[in-house]
Design a protein that fits this description.
The protein is of the alpha/beta class and about 550 residues long. Helix content is about 45%, strand content about 15%. The chain is globular.
Length: about 550
């Protein structure tokens, strides 16, 4: 078992060293985040390379030693080939007076030249940093003990992305999704095998979490998963490629605006019984919320990606939702983060949601507390779509109100303990009639697990079969399976709060007044926009009628 205390101490010490760049140079987080991550990447690349090289040498007989292509053998071990000029240890050993910035740039170029997967992905801006600063960073990052855990690099990388997101504010949120939400999505959709797609992939966190899920179930992610991503920002595309590379994943990450560009023909998979399906087994995403001024006239002809038509209001949420659903093949599952307001949105968005519900595409809805994001304080929702729901769950949706489930990390930030995350995911498994899976809890020990979220303490009485096995039951204030008829009566709302109710003796909601008020304001703005559009449409029609009279 990894020494998590040591890892946490290491993360904080490394961040302190890295953040000295901002304190001592006046650089913005945007300017120094990529170079810092590049150095950590280089250190980890050498570590993986050295392990692979040692393994190959041990397996080789004296007669065969040195035969064959060492580069190919290294890559076959899931590591990158690192030439001498790109070795982190050689950079540390540079003689006094060397131009370290130039040497680090050359190291990045050499590593790219020998590894096609990271071509043009590494930063090469180190000449702008003073020698003393770079030397200090190299020494600090050299202390990383990658033997502390099975994926210490992933831990450090994620920690740094987290810190950069907080430092950069809104800009950082573009490439970082809170790991608690990413992992919960992964546990619910269970991407054991197949093609995974994220059209707003950021730094690739969804892909890394999928690979971790596969690995924890004793499978090789590089064999089981093919990942495909799209991101509109070139810097973020490069960040995603690096993140995949260091985790030994091969992925096809492309730059492009997902509203207007569809390089993967995501919705054009097999045609079965006259019905068009998408390309992917799994879709995972955290798209930008409530985007306006999208040029919808450019999208109206795309009936494959947007089969339910264009929302009339100036909001992109239901473009994303259609995109995710259309990308799924006949057995596909999707899990994504969405603005809380989308669950109840009215007008044209309600019409689109109705069509999705009538097709029985919605599987699970999870309401999430506020303050999980660093840049958005409002609560959000996790949507789970499924084109192959089990027979017993046809025309039903599982609603989970998890707004009361969280760990308070800081005054402004919340997440899940591994126990809480495992608990929510297993509610879904009970609903689906699957076996309980505690792999995540067993492989992610957490000091804050307190035993308050065991399934046995919630699903008792009617929640047990004759054999004593746990079975799903509705629990007031936590979860409810609603039929299509019940959803229709609620105006096709997908807001868990409308169905789950409250537990006896509990208050309706623990959200503070400002959060509630902001949510109501958001809904009011949507309604006002739709009213203005309706008013304009009526005026236009009146002009036509009067003109024809």
């Amino acid at each position: 078992m990894a020494d998590f205390k040591k890892i946490e101490e290491l993360e904080k010490r490394l961040w302190s060293a890295a953040d000295s760049l901002r304190a001592n140079t006046g650089l913005t987080a945007q300017e120094y985040s990529r170079p810092i991550l590049g150095l950590i990447f280089l250190k980890y690349a050498e570590y993986r390379f050295t392990l692979a090289k040692s393994k190959i040498e041990e397996q080789s007989s004296s007669r065969r030693r040195g035969s064959g292509d060492i580069k190919s053998k290294i890559q076959a071990e899931g590591a990158m080939y690192v030439p001498d000029e790109a070795l982190y240890s050689n950079l540390l050993a540079l003689p006094e007076g060397s131009n370290i910035g130039v040497k680090v740039n050359d190291a990045m170029k050499a590593l790219e030249a020998d590894n096609e997967a990271i071509k043009d992905a590494l930063p090469k801006t180190y000449s702008r940093f003073e020698n003393d600063m770079l030397k200090s960073l190299l020494k600090n990052f050299n202390d990383i003990d990658f033997t502390l855990g099975s994926d210490i690099f992933g831990r450090i990388y994620e920690y740094f992305l987290n810190e950069f997101a907080k430092t950069e504010g809104q800009g950082g949120g573009e490439f970082f999704t809170p790991s608690a939400l990413v992992k919960l999505i992964t546990e619910v959709i269970e991407p054991y095998h197949g093609k995974v797609f994220d059209p707003a992939c950021g730094s690739g966190g969804m892909f890394i979490s999928s690979a971790d899920f596969v690995a924890k179930h004793n499978r090789d992610a590089s064999d089981e998963l093919s990942v495909f991503g799209q991101e509109k920002t070139g810097d973020t595309v490069r960040l995603s490629k690096l993140n995949l590379a260091v985790h030994g994943l091969q992925g096809d990450i492309r730059e492009g605006n997902s509203y207007y560009e569809d390089p993967f023909d995501l919705a054009k998979g097999e045609v079965i019984d006259g019905k068009q399906y998408g390309q992917f087994d799994f879709v995972m995403a955290n798209p930008p919320f409530n985007v306006n001024e999208i040029q919808k006239d450019r999208l109206e002809g795309d009936k494959h990606r947007f089969p339910y038509g264009m929302p009339r209001n100036d909001n992109g949420n239901y473009l994303w939702i259609q995109m995710f659903y259309s990308a799924l093949n006949q057995k596909g599952r999707a899990g994504f983060v969405m603005a809380n307001s989308a669950s109840d949105a009215r007008g044209s968005e309600q019409e689109i949601r109705q069509k999705l519900i009538e097709e029985d595409g919605v599987d699970v809805m999870v309401a999430v507390s506020s303050n999980f994001f660093y840049t958005v304080t409002l609560p959000c929702a996790l949507w789970f779509l499924d084109k192959n729901k089990p027979a017993q769950n046809k025309d039903k949706v599982l609603f989970i109100d998890a707004r009361h489930i969280f760990r308070q990390v800081t005054r402004a930030v919340r997440d899940y303990t591994s126990e809480q995350l495992n608990f929510i995911a297993n509610i879904v498994r009970l609903y689906r009639g699957q076996d309980i899976d505690n792999t995540y809890l067993e492989t992610h020990p957490d000091a804050d697990n307190d035993g308050n979220y065991s399934l046995e303490s919630f699903f008792k009485g009617e929640g047990k079969s004759d054999t004593g096995e746990l079975i799903y039951q509705d629990i007031a204030g936590l979860c409810k399976v609603a039929t299509k008829e019940e959803i229709i009566k609620q105006g096709y709302s997908l807001n868990p709060g409308r169905y789950v109710g409250v537990a006896e003796g509990e208050k309706e909601c623990d959200e503070d007044f400002s959060v509630k008020l902001t949510a109501l304001q958001e809904e009011l703005e949507v309604l006002n926009a739709e009213a203005h559009e309706l008013e304009a449409s009526i005026s236009e029609n009146l002009v036509k009628v009067l003109g024809a009279a």
